[in-house]
Structure formats: C-alpha cells, structure tokens
Amino acid sequence: MRDIQNIVSPRVTSPAKASSVKRFPQRETTPTRPKTSVQTSSVLPSLHPPRTEDAASPPPSPKPLPTTPAKSPRKRNDVAAPQVSPSRLPRALPSNLYPALNAQKRATLKALHEISVLPQGDSEDDDNTEPSANTAAFNQLRGLLTGTVERGEGNSCMVIGPKGSGKTQLVERAISTLPEAPIVIRLSGFAQTNDRLAIREIAWQLAEQTGQSLLPPEQDETVQDDENPFIEPNAEVAVTLPPPSHLLALISMLPTLPRPTIITLDGFDLFALHARQSLLYCLLDTVQSCRAVSGNRGIAVVGVTTRVETINILEKRVKSRFSGRIIRTAGLPLFDNWIGAARHALCSPIQDESECDWSNMWNASVDSFLHDQQVVRLLKETFTLTKDIRVLGRLLVATVIALKPSSPALSTSELAAAVNKQRYPPRFSFLSSLTYPSICLLIAAAHVRTSGHETFTFEMLHDAFQDQVRTSMSAPVTVDGGGIGMAFEKLVSLQVFVATASAAAGIGKEFMKYRCDADRSEIKDAVDKTGQLSLKKWLTKAQ
C-alpha cells in the first residue's frame, strides 16, 4: 500500500508542480514575443523583416558617396571666383584700372573739399514730411535775391547758424542759381578790420568785375601822367583806386551799376564793432532808399554770422534801416545724415564713363567701408564731439589720399590715424603708470566731484581713502605713513591737482584747496589699465 501511495502521491502533486513550472516559462516567453513583435511592427516598421536582413545592414556604406560630390562645388567656386570679382575691388589693382583710380581720387577729393550739409540732388525728396531747415533757408534766400536781380529791389537779410552749418555755401549756391549773373562783392570782418579797408576792397572788386576806372574824369589825367616802374605799360586792364575823398561815394552809386549788386558780409558781427558802424549805416541806407525804378538795377546786403544776438548790438540808426529778415541754418541733426553726406562725397562719379565695372566695384567698397563696425564707431565718436561737416571732410581726405594700386580700397587704419591726428592728444596719458596711492587719490577726487564739491583739500581725500581701506581691508599701502602725502605732492607737481588760490600765511598745506584737472573718463581709463578689481569697484561707487 505504501508503495502504491508513494506512486500515487507524486502523480497527484507532480502535476501541480509541473503545471506551476510549465506556467512560469509560459508567462516569460509567450507574452514577451508578441510585445516585441507589436513594438517592432508599430514603431519601427523598417525593422519588421527577419534578422537575416539585419546582417545585411552594412551595405549602407554607399552613404559617404554623397560627400564626394560636395567637393566639386568648392572647385567650382574656386573657378567661378573671377566672375564675382567685378563687384569687389581686388587686393592688387590691375594696370588697366590705374587711370580710373586716379580719376576717382581727384573727383572724391574735390567733393570732400566742397562737402556740404545742404541737400544734394535728389536728396531733397526724402520720406520726411517737412523740408529741412537748410532747404527752407535756401528757398527763402533765393527768393529774396531773385527779387533783387529780376525786379531791382533793395533787400537786406542776415544768415545765422552755428559753425559748419553751411551758411557761406548756402549764400554761394543761392547766387549761382540766379537767372542773371550779378556783381558780387565779398567782404570779411576778419580781413577788413575797419571801414577804410572795407571801402577800398569794395572799390577794388568793382574795378575788377566792371573793368572800368572808378576815378572822376578830372583825376584820370593826373594818374596817367604819373609813371610807375612797377606797372607794365601794355597791361590790358589798369585797375586804379579812387582817392579817399571819393570812397564814400562808391556805395551810393552801387544801384546804378549795369548789373545788380550783391554784397556778402562774412563775420557781420565784427563789422558791427567798427567805430560808429559807418559802413553798415551807408550800405543799409542805400538798400532802403533803393526803389524798383528804371534807373536802378537793385542791391542786396547779406550778412553771415554765428552770433545770435548780432541784431541787438546794432545802433538804433542802423537797426532802423535793417529789414529784420533773419534766415537760420542748422547742422546735420542725425548721424545717418553724416553717413549719407560721406557716401555722397565718396561715391562721386568720374568723367570717364567707359569704366562701368570700376564704378560698381568702388561703390561696393565704399558701402562695405561705411558699414564696418570700427568705422562707424570712429565716426560716431567724432559726431558726438562736433557736428561740423568740415571735420568729416578732413578725416576722409586723409583716407582717400592713402589710396594706391596696391591697396585701392579705403582703409580703416588710415581713418583711425586721421581721427587721432584731428583730436587733441590726451593731457594725462601717464595716469596709468602712477603708483597705487596716487590712483587712490584720483578716485577719491572723483568721489568728491560727484558729491558736488569741485575743490577739495588733502584731508578730505585722506579721509575718503581711510574709509575705503577700512571697508575693503585690502590696500598695499600704509594709511598713517607718508605714502599718501608723497603721492599727493607728486600729483601736484604733475599739475593733475591744481591749487585754486595762492598759499596764504598761516594755512597748512593739508588745508589748501585744489581741483582735479583730470576728467572722470581719463581716471577710468587709468584704473582699467591697472587691472585692480578693488579700485574698479571703488570707482563705480562714485557714479
């Protein structure tokens, strides 16, 4: 029986064990295979084929083949480079373009010599809704002079504007656009320092433009009898000046000349400083009495000055004869206008139009030059210092002169050198080489100036230095020693610190008042060159 039970019991228990053993591998194998098949079929259908194709995966080796044709465009670019060169200036100019370069230099230098803030060509029709101040001033002055030339009127006006705003060019352009060429007399208050010199200059210019002697008939014979060994006997036109007794009569006869007369007075405020203002009174009185009649040809007096209150320094009798017309000019208000004026001058057309390729290359090089970051920075710094367009012309002239066949493009280094020559040299270029205590005193002086005190004493700077040492605890100099005092005396000897008053008796040196001639920007540059982080932090506290 035991044998039978032993035989039967394993049969009862073994199936359970067998079933449990059989079910465990089924849970491992049967669920996992469908998951892999579903994932591979749904997510990566390209991997659904059997593994036999995975073994054949190395054939994607032909993929590097597309890289081989990529070398051919490089070769093509190298070959096609000469086709792009006509739009750019080469580094070394070919010999056939030497005449074009010389012609471009002449045209550009002429344009830079006559560079103006006035609108050029089609620049008047900009997107701006209202015309610029110079355009309105030009139209007003041209209309005034047109009335003098065409209708024989007597007019007077004053052109006022800052230096470099195009006052003289405005007057000259208005005269050049008149329908009839008038007699133009140009006087300057810097050359004609008194009325006698001014009247003699008027007589000289009238004699040159009319070709007639302005002497009375009875004076001609006496002058002809006198022999002057320095005058050629066969001279075409003998210009003679009237005697002083007849000089004042010249002004009254100006309206009766065969052509209209325009008198320009540069430095009008300087003529107002002459004794009794006799010249201005005679000119303006003649203008006021001029009427549009058949015998008169018209006269106009145009004063040019930078002084705004010039009309207030005129005498009452002179002011009553002045028309009161004031025409105002202005410089270029925006930096983009400066760049536009520079581009217009640099891209001046040359006379030889056969070199079309040269014009395209030159214009492209000018555009790339004006868009260079360093060029923009240099010009913007100059624009912030002065808006005088003549300064821009001088900078570009030095750059254009440096052009040569080996370097036909405008150079940024030449422009930087020209900017350095035009600016004043730094007064205190040695600040960065000073000792640590000296630079600390400079920073303390900047603190004092920021607090609103232009003058200071040694004790004030010493206290500021002590406070900084206590807060930072990093100063390689003794506070109580003589290092600070010696540094202060060194700055005084270098005239960085200047005494505001002479030393008085009974006042110690430490209580004398000084001022710092070094600007904050110069102190900042010196601190930056030292590389001391603690000094930089201390300087920024003064802002």
Automatic annotation (TrEMBL):
Organism: Phlebiopsis gigantea (strain 11061_1 CR5-6)
Segments traversing the membrane: none
Keyword entries, A-Z: DNA replication, DNA-binding, Nucleus
Domain Orc1-like AAA ATPase residue range list: 138-289
GO MF, one annotated term: DNA replication origin binding
Primary subcellular site in the record, as a coarse category: nucleus
GO cellular component, one term: nuclear origin of replication recognition complex
Ranges annotated as biased composition (Polar residues): 1-12, 27-44
Protein localization: Nucleus
A biological process from GO: DNA replication initiation
Listed Pfam families: AAA_16, ORC4_C
Compositional bias per record (Pro residues), positions renumbered to this chain: 57-67
Domain Origin recognition complex subunit 4 C-terminal residue range list: 342-527
Similarity section: Belongs to the ORC4 family.
Record's protein name: Uncharacterized protein
